[in-house]
Specification:
With 365 residues, the chain is an alpha+beta fold. It has two domains: 247 residues, Zn peptidases (Aminopeptidase, 3-Layer(aba) Sandwich), CATH 3.40.630.10; 90 residues, Peptidase M42, domain 2 (Elongation Factor Tu (Ef-tu), domain 3). The protein contains eleven helices and 17 strands. The strands form three sheets. Strands 1-2-12-3-13-16-14-15 form an eight-stranded mixed sheet, with helices on both faces. Strands 5-4-9-6-7-8 form a six-stranded antiparallel sheet. It has a three-stranded antiparallel sheet with strand order 10-11-17. Strand 6 and strand 7 form a beta hairpin. The two termini are 21 Å apart.
Length: 365
């Protein structure tokens, strides 16, 4: 087994630009329950190479290649992101909202946002009282969600309601951009980075002969309770399942490695170990990384993970499950940060994993 030092010396891809497929996914607006734009991107890039592309009542997109192969492998990455939902429009045309998924309320105000309406995109800004107008006590406290609103420039409720409706979804409005050392900053890398990976693995394997069958699923509503994964895992009924999500990098000024473990951008995929993970799947993923000289990091998970892996493992009679994560800084903020090398390495690792399977392979233990 290779040491951590040897892994760190492994060859780097050092990508400085992303696949257009990934960029198009990151530009899409797809909060939980409103994943329409991401669905269209996936259909555009994946349908031409898939043997079949299925959709279901929750909006999942399930692409399959080599359907008669064995074993049947399922890969999942969720396409939804955190967002907001309009719940009230006041008499002056200001919009009040609830959160979709987990937010740091302190980061919400002062942002440009997109409102997804039936008539098209409406742009606004999140506002609250300026700091000059807050009391000394209020300045010490986290703002309450009810004290933040969206301003679309309307002068009345009637004017606002001609443009937006209660129940419209909202996301931050910012575009992906590159930073030094092959870093990519964008909204919603959690987890459109993961959904890109599972579909890109399928795209690359569609050109190769292999024993296994592969179904790559872009799931919906993960951010509000891994909801899309439940019917999708049941429908696919796989022998082996891999979830691809993001994991917390701890290489920032007050990153708590004592609590979370040590994870760095550019240090390779994060492979999970623990009760949610089949030991044989973990061992094979690690072996594949070492064969390809891909650096990797290991994360200890003491119980069910907060990912689609928790659903895959418990589907039907149970599924041998693995979890591979992309290291990510600033999760669930308007600007998440990942390394393009790590994303590419996850793709390469999973291409190797599926390619290496032999007919009838089982991961019982």
């Amino acid at each position: 087994m290779k040491s951590d030092t040897e892994n760190k010396k492994s060859k780097k891809v050092l990508k400085t630009t992303a696949d257009p497929f990934l960029i198009d996914l990151l530009k899409s607006s797809s909060p939980s329950g409103y994943e329409f734009e991401a669905q269209k991107v996936i259909e555009k890039y994946v349908t031409p190479v898939a043997d079949s592309m299925k959709k279901d009542a929750l909006g999942n997109r399930m692409a399959t290649i080599n359907s008669k192969g064995s074993p049947h492998v399922l890969m999942m990455g969720h396409m939804d992101e955190i967002g907001f939902i309009i719940r009230y429009i006041n008499k002056d045309g200001f919009l009040f909202f609830d959160t979709i998924g987990g937010h740091d309320v302190g980061l919400i105000s002062g942002r440009k946002v997109r409102i997804l309406t039936e008539k098209g995109m409406v742009y606004g800004i999140t506002g609250r009282r300026a700091i000059h107008l807050l009391t000394a006590e209020e300045r010490k406290q986290m703002p309450k969600l009810q004290s933040i609103w969206i301003d679309i420039g309307a002068r009345s409720k009637e004017e606002a309601m001609k443009r937006v409706s209660v129940g419209d979804a909202v996301v931050y409005d910012n575009e992906p951009f590159y930073m030094d050392n092959g870093l990519l900053c964008a909204r919603g890398i959690d987890d459109r980075g993961g959904t890109y990976v599972v579909q890109e693995v399928l795209r690359r394997l569609s050109k190769k002969k292999m024993a296994a069958s592969l179904t790559s699923v872009s799931t919906t509503q993960e951010e509000i309770g891994t909801r899309g994964a439940i019917p999708a895992a049941y429908e696919v009924h796989p022998d082996i399942g891999i979830a691809v999500d993001v994991g917390h990098a701890t290489d920032f000024p007050d990153g708590d490695s004592n609590k979370l473990g040590e994870f760095k951008l550019g240090a390779g995929p994060i492979l999970a170990r623990g009760p949610n993970i089949c030991p044989r799947v973990f061992a094979e993923l690690k072996a594949c990384a070492e064969r390809l000289k891909i650096p990797y990091q290991v994360e200890a998970e003491s119980g069910p993970t907060g990912t689609d892996a928790r659903v895959i493992q418990m589907s039907r009679e149970g599924v041998a499950t693995g979890l591979v994560s992309i290291p990510l800084r600033y999760m669930h903020t308007p600007h998440e940060l990942a390394c393009l090398d790590d994303i590419e390495w996850v793709v390469q690792l999973l291409v190797e994993f599926v390619s290496s399977l032999k007919p009838g392979d089982k991961f019982e233990w």
